Amino acid sequence: MIKSQKEFPLFDQYKAKFPGITEHTIFAYSPDIYTDFKLTPDLLIHENVHLVQQEEIGRDLWVEKFLNDPQFRLDMELEAYRKQLASIVDSSKRQKMKLICAENLSSDLYDNIISLSEAFDLLSKNG
């Protein structure tokens, strides 16, 4: 179910850790997705990857590791971004989105866990 970002129960905890969070940030917290904007199909795929990750690992453990373990956070986001990018059929749009994803991944949205060039290179690999 998609709910308003204002309803995300861990908003303050996430905002304290990730200063890049804005009103456009989307949160997946099983079983719900929190956003105040319509999701494009590729973004829905990205967020659903996180819901599946949380179901497999356990939601609370996933959140704890996401907040505190940069390598775990990178691994989770790479899986989600790769599946998101793979869902975009138009290669020109996919390339543009890859740069946006790399910029996000290398920003304070994820606590600057990787450089832009590293993020772009990793997103260019299939896994």
Short structural summary:
The protein has 127 residues and is mainly α. 59% of the residues lie in helices and 6% in strands.
Tally of extended strands? 3
- Return the structural class: mainly alpha
C-alpha termini separation: 29 Å
Gross geometry: globular
**In angstroms, what is the radius of gyration?**
14 Å
Q: Major sheet: size, sense and barrel closure?
A: 3 strands, mixed
The percent range for helix content is 55-70%
Mean pLDDT level: 96
Strand content: 5-15%
Strand order of the largest sheet: 1-3-2
Number of helices: 6
Describe what you observe in this structure.
- With 127 residues, the protein is mainly alpha-helical.
- The chain has a domain at 39-124.
- Helix content is 59%, strand content 6%.
- The chain is built from six helices and three strands.
- It has helices at residues 11-17, 41-57, 59-68, 70-86, 91-105, 116-124; strands spanning 2-3, 27-29, 32-34.
- Strands 1-3-2 form a three-stranded mixed beta sheet, covered by helices on one side.
- The radius of gyration is 14 Å and the shape is globular.
- The N and C termini lie far apart (29 Å).
- The model has no long low-confidence stretch (mean pLDDT 96).
Indicate the topology:
Blueprint: E1 2-3, H1 11-17, E2 27-29, E3 32-34, H2 41-57, H3 59-68, H4 70-86, H5 91-105, H6 116-124
